[in-house]
Design a protein that fits this description.
Largest interface: A-B, 59 and 59 residues
Oligomer: homodimer
CATH architecture of the largest domain in chain A: 3-Layer(aba) Sandwich
CATH topology of the largest domain in chain A: Rossmann fold
Helix content of chain A: 25-40%
Strand content of chain A: 5-15%
Radius of gyration of chain A: 26 Å
Structural class of chain A: alpha/beta
Shape of chain A: elongated
Number of domains of chain A: 3
Chain lengths: 348, 348
Amino acid sequence: MEVTGHMPAQDAPRTRSASIWDVARVAGVSQQTVSRVINGKARVSEATRARVLQVIAELGYRPNRLAQALAGGPVRSVTVLTSDTALYGAAATLRGMEEAARTAGFSVGISVLERNSGQADIALRLNRPGEAVMVIAFDDAGVRALRALPADVPVAAAVERRPDDGPDDPWQIWLDDRAAAAHATRYLLSLGHQTVHYVAIPSSTSALPQRTQGWQDALGAAGRPLPEPLPGGWSPRSGYLAVRSLLADRSVTAILCGNDDLALGVMRAAREAGRDIPGDLSVVGFDDSPPSAYLNPSLTTVRLDFEGLGRACFGLLHRRLDPQNAPAVPAWSEPELIVRESSGPPPA
Amino acid sequence: MEVTGHMPAQDAPRTRSASIWDVARVAGVSQQTVSRVINGKARVSEATRARVLQVIAELGYRPNRLAQALAGGPVRSVTVLTSDTALYGAAATLRGMEEAARTAGFSVGISVLERNSGQADIALRLNRPGEAVMVIAFDDAGVRALRALPADVPVAAAVERRPDDGPDDPWQIWLDDRAAAAHATRYLLSLGHQTVHYVAIPSSTSALPQRTQGWQDALGAAGRPLPEPLPGGWSPRSGYLAVRSLLADRSVTAILCGNDDLALGVMRAAREAGRDIPGDLSVVGFDDSPPSAYLNPSLTTVRLDFEGLGRACFGLLHRRLDPQNAPAVPAWSEPELIVRESSGPPPA
DNA sequence: AGAGAGAATGTGATCGATAACATTACCTAT
DNA sequence: ATAGGTAATGTTATCGATCACATTCTCTCT
């Protein structure tokens, strides 16, 4: 329903949506009272409240979040900075963040980081100084963006697991994929493999990637040979390319991959090299992306609760914004090894 | 850099980011002049402009988009309404939308639709009356949201292809997956298959899904038997379940699937039923999601340019918002059949 | 009866920015 | 010299909402 003008200026009537002034006039109260009603504030009688809500429904009034924010209302919007949302990890984390934020009444912005996003760029991606931000910082673009945020920005970030000697930041949150990689490696060793090779996802920092570290941890603890990690990317193709030379070596019987897409590429390269999976070669992925259970062979992989992590990340930010009232940060599941068809004992 | 106060009220100094008033004071001009500089308006001397830009850089001033919008500046924000962003079609479309919008200087909001999102919900997801919106309406939740938007909302939508007798809306855009399904069906027939079965994705409307329609078009035109379409969902599991009974019938030699995940499930069910792919059964997917080339067997599928569609959708919205200045709507690629290992002639 | 406290409501200022219009100075043409 | 037009800048109002404080009325206690 369109109505005209508002109280302070009636010399140029224009058609637009109902504002708080329109509601106030029709309900016969001040706009401050309407504000109290829509924000659940005290000092409003039940009769007045009911009358105002009735008028709100009749006029189809919708609050203007921009004006609320500008006038100093509570922070109710957040921008998510993230890299490629088509990658399972980022997509699932974003899904958790968006759901939790929306449920808490926040509006959610998204801004995708490119490889070459510059420092000056980052602040300009925010709607206003002081905008709340969540960063999905699983790769170096995310980490760079996190560092480039101005000091006035309330932020929470989902990051790659910190190294044990890394800086402690209470607003960062992660999944322990180092321990998960160690566990997956130990599983392969327990099947009888002499050692395990590793195709790595790129690190988000200059430090050794934590999944790589966990793989090395387990091999070191077992006194097994420690091969050079094979650098991969994020895609099946990069996994395929990473192992083509390695697979000529028949003594290679087990490969752990930094994500499921890498595993898919590795399995294809193995088939082309005439290696049977898991008879000749066991392949283990990471993340348990949705198609994994239906591959041929179905993929042994590590399930990571990215959605849970995203929800928890928002919970952390919410506590940062409103320590008194925000609910407890929700828990997220620990990594879990999911054994399927692609892994088994080494050939006799 | 934090500075205090602003011109009209200096009796309660507070620390916050630089505002347009701070820039104006330091540069020795009015805030209107600063506004002219940052918006590239006329009536600013080169010397004044340079001075203002210098002060902006020194103070680290960042415009407040909320205030800009409230004060009547040009629309520079858009909210994307979409269903499950982990599905390839929606994720890729979103990626195209976000990239195009960001590049054009828009801030992008995202709001994920749940199955039970109600009509009253939709308007409340927008930041203000009149907010620009893009809807990814490939499923029924998206279509319902599109219908529920208030009349004052400038909107562009990526939709399932319209039926030929459907309503003509200049602000809707789609990929011709009806023609693509017909083409894929004809391809399978040309391999020698007597007929083609079809596992359907859910329709976004009460009309026959357009991919289903295209499959039927091609079978009808070739005078081939027309099997009942098998209702599937969006996931591998639903594809797996959809065909378990069908695969007992050895005369079934070709299955077209409404998306790649369905194809993955179908292929798994085929293997469990002892059907060789493509020796006994050809399987064709839809969308060419990134893992398709690396599956075992690699998947024959129809490539759809969702990213291009997303970019074009933003282009359409931009023209709706600013007919004089917005660039031409970018073209997007036509669907393309990608033949890989999963399809071949029927068994002799 | 009078004082004090609290409930309920309203007024004015503010937030950061742009639109609309006003003002001033300078240049050109007659 | 005067008039007209334009460039450049500034002032005021406005956008929709909330904060901070003021005002009024009612109830309870002494």
